């Protein structure tokens, strides 16, 4: 008996037409980042830094080569 594999659909709200992340705030973040500020790359594709303060997260992102990071405070709760 040969069963077809299930089709996995991407969340349309979190993926732009070109396949890039449309909204990094919908990304599921690791529990190790709870309570920290997360600095995303300007395209929202990757985490470039995290820190206890937003200023420090921006500074670390800049040092990592990201001049305009997107900041998010990870509260541990889902943010639609």
Q: What is the terminal-to-terminal distance?
A: 41 Å
Q: What's the helical proportion of residues?
A: 10-25%
Residue fraction in strands = 15-25%
Supply Rg: 16 Å
Order of helices and strands: EEHE
Structural class: alpha+beta
Low-pLDDT parts are 1-18
Mean pLDDT: 75
SS element count, helices: 1
Could you say which overall geometry the principal axes of the C-alpha atoms support?
Answer: globular
Q: Major sheet, described briefly?
A: 3 strands, antiparallel
Instruction: Tell how many strands the DSSP assignment holds.
Output: 3
Write structural notes for this entry.
Helix content is 12%, strand content 16%. It has 80 residues and is α+β, with helices and mostly antiparallel strands. The chain has a domain at 32-80. A 3-stranded antiparallel β-sheet has the order 2-1-3, with helices on one face. It starts with 36 loop residues before the first strand and ends in a 7-residue tail after the last strand. 16% of the residues are buried.
List keywords for this structure.
single chain, 80 residues, alpha+beta, 3 strands, disordered N terminus
Task: Offer a concise description of the structure.
12% of the residues lie in helices and 16% in strands. It is an alpha+beta fold. It has a domain at 32-80.
Topology:
Layout: E1 37-40, E2 47-51, H1 54-63, E3 70-73
Antiparallel strand pairs: 1-2, 1-3
């Amino acid at each position: 008996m040969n069963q077809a594999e299930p089709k996995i659909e991407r969340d349309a709200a979190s993926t732009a037409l070109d396949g890039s992340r449309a909204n990094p705030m919908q990304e599921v973040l690791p529990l190790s980042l709870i309570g920290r500020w997360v600095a995303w790359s300007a395209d929202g594709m990757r985490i470039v830094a995290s820190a206890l303060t937003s200023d420090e997260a921006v500074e670390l992102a800049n040092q990592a080569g990201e001049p305009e990071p997107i900041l998010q405070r990870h509260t541990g709760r889902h943010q639609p």
